[in-house]
């Protein structure tokens, strides 16, 4: 395996701005172990045991490493049912970052979505979002609403280098609001960064236009702020006049334009569990609080241990650190650089939290019915024990008979502060090896399809024989020696 060190043609090694204090062993399943695990898991990587995974890039959600300061924070948990001092600190931290008045802690992001959409969304409503994340979409649907994605056209072009592919198509938003009217649109939502579309940022200029449009129609604007600090990092890097501003200032410029937010602190909160919903609307906060008590717990803990709130307060602040954010984005670019050098197709430009492989270019011999994203994810596991996730026809696919979604991607999400540069070089090497023998990769069929969020629990089986459009390609590239 190559770990480029001093070769100027190779991507720069990202310098880890932290050192190791606790070591966690990385599992080392053999090829036979991996084959067995795939069969047991029904070729769904969500069903793997973590001991069967060498490098886990399934998600960056709640999988990060807490800092020594966060672990220390756990020790000052005040586990009072009501009025814990950890809640007071948490509330003031979130208020100072966002400026929102009413802060309701939840155990994670989807619980925040549940409170917001159960309260605001009625059957027949339309909810626009640059791109709905899977759980956001599911909550809109569960409340009888219709989720509509209105990202700019560049968002759907994996080759475009547009710097703000998370942007909202503002004329489309305006047209939608005109057509539906404020009675039928309970809120406009914008996801920063746009996870589903490749972790792409939204510019402040675009967000201002969105806010102006929503206000003109009298519709509240909410932001899904899971990766707000990464979004602010890109704004600082790419948007004119932003370089001198801090992450906190840029974030605040976004929050000042909207009415509230949902947050999964498992992302830019740097914790393993936690989230919140925040709003300026007092009456909405009151209604959500009733559901919070029903589903999560008393409003000063919201489904969490109080010590978790304390770790979240520290994490929310650490996530604004420029050294941390620079390294995070550099890690993603490092993998992208190594893949680029081996001509592996991925979604450009790379976003904040992972690399999204462009499956239609990676496996052109497979058709949508072959579930090529899932097939590629399975192959990356088989080759090197990597766990990744399909973001395409299974995660977002409409039911049988309709068209597949415009993007078919496999996401390699990078957990925060977990893997070193040599781990990432290994990842790139595994992906490149599968790319070299890509003609070998066969499609899958779904043998069990659950009704909601199918990617979590579906089961698959390999298609027999050659894949639909492939020449019998299996022998095209000689198999390299396996890394064990
Ligand atoms: C993770 C995520 C959510 C849901 O958060 P959970 O903590 O996983 O429930 C919502 N929106 C976006 C953009 C996310 O990335």
Description:
- With 484 residues, the protein is an alpha/beta fold.
- The chain has 2 domains: 2-60 and 321-462, Alpha-Beta Complex (Aspartate Aminotransferase, domain 1); 68-318, Type I PLP-dependent aspartate aminotransferase-like (Major domain) (Aspartate Aminotransferase, domain 2, 3-Layer(aba) Sandwich), CATH 3.40.640.10.
- Helices cover 38% and strands 12% of the residues.
- The chain contains 17 helices and 14 strands.
- The protein has helices spanning 31-40, 68-74, 85-98, 109-120, 134-142, 170-180, 204-216, 228-238, 247-255, 282-295, 306-318, 322-341, 359-362, 372-384, 393-396, 421-436, 454-457, and strands spanning 55-56, 102-106, 126-129, 146-149, 188-191, 221-224, 260-264, 275-279, 354-358, 386-387, 389-391, 409-413, 444-448, 459-462.
- A 5-stranded mixed sheet has the order 2-8-7-6-5, sandwiched between helices. It has a 3-stranded antiparallel sheet with strand order 9-12-11.
- Helix 6 packs parallel to helix 7 (204-216), helix 8 (228-238) crosses helix 9 (247-255) and helix 12 packs parallel to helix 16.
- It is globular and about 60 Å long.
- Residues 1-5 and 467-484 have low confidence and may be disordered.
- The chain binds pyridoxal-5'-phosphate.
- Pyridoxal-5'-phosphate binds at residues 61, 108-110, 133, 135-136, 191, 195, 224, 226, 264, 266-267, 275.
């Amino acid at each position: 395996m190559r770990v480029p060190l001093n070769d100027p043609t190779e991507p720069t090694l990202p310098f880890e701005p932290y050192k190791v204090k606790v070591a966690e062993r990385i599992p080392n399943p053999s090829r036979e172990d991996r084959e067995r695990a795939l069969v047991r898991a029904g070729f769904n990587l969500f069903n793997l045991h973590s001991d069967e995974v060498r490098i886990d890039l399934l998600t960056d959600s709640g999988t990060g490493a807490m800092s020594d300061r966060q672990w220390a924070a756990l020790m000052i948990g005040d586990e009072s049912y009501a009025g814990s001092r950890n809640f007071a600190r948490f509330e003031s931290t979130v208020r100072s970052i966002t400026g929102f008045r009413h802060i309701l802690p939840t155990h994670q992001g989807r619980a925040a979505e549940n409170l917001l959409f159960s309260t605001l969304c009625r059957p027949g409503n339309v909810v626009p979002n640059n791109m709905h994340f899977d759980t956001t979409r599911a909550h809109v649907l569960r409340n009888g609403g219709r989720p509509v994605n209105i990202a700019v056209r560049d968002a759907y072009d994996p080759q475009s280098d547009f710097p703000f592919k998370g942007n909202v198509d503002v004329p489309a938003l305006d047209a939608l609001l005109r057509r539906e009217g404020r009675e039928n649109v309970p809120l406009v939502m914008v996801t920063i960064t746009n996870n589903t579309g490749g972790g792409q940022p939204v510019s402040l200029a675009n967000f201002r236009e969105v806010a102006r449009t929503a206000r003109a129609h009298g519709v509240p604007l909410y932001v899904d702020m899971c990766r707000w600090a990464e979004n602010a990092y890109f704004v600082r890097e790419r948007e004119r006049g932003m370089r001198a501003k801090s992450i906190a200032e840029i974030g605040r410029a976004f929050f000042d334009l909207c009415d509230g937010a949902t947050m999964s602190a498992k992302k830019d909160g740097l914790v393993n569990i936690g989230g919140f919903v925040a709003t300026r609307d007092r009456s909405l906060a009151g209604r959500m609080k009733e559901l919070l008590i029903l589903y999560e717990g008393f409003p000063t803990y919201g489904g969490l241990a109080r010590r978790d709130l304390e770790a979240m307060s520290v994490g929310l602040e650490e996530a604004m650190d420029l050294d941390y954010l620079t390294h995070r984005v550099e890690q993603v670019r490092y993998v992208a650089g190594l893949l680029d050098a081996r001509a592996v197709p991925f979604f450009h430009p790379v976003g904040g939290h992972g690399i999204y492989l462009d499956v239609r270019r990676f496996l052109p011999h497979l058709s949508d019915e072959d579930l090529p994203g899932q097939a590629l994810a399975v192959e990356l596991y088989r080759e090197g024990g990597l766990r990744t996730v399909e973001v395409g026809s299974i995660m977002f696919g409409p039911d049988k008979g309709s068209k597949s979604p415009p993007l078919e991607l496999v996401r390699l999400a990078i957990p925060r502060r977990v893997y070193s540069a040599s781990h990432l070089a290994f990842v790139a090497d595994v992906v490149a090896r599968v790319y070299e023998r890509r003609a070998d990769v066969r499609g899958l069929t779904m043998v069990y399809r659950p009704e909601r969020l199918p990617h979590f629990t579906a089961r698959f089986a390999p298609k027999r024989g050659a894949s639909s459009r492939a020449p019998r390609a299996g022998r095209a590239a000689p198999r390299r020696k396996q890394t064990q």
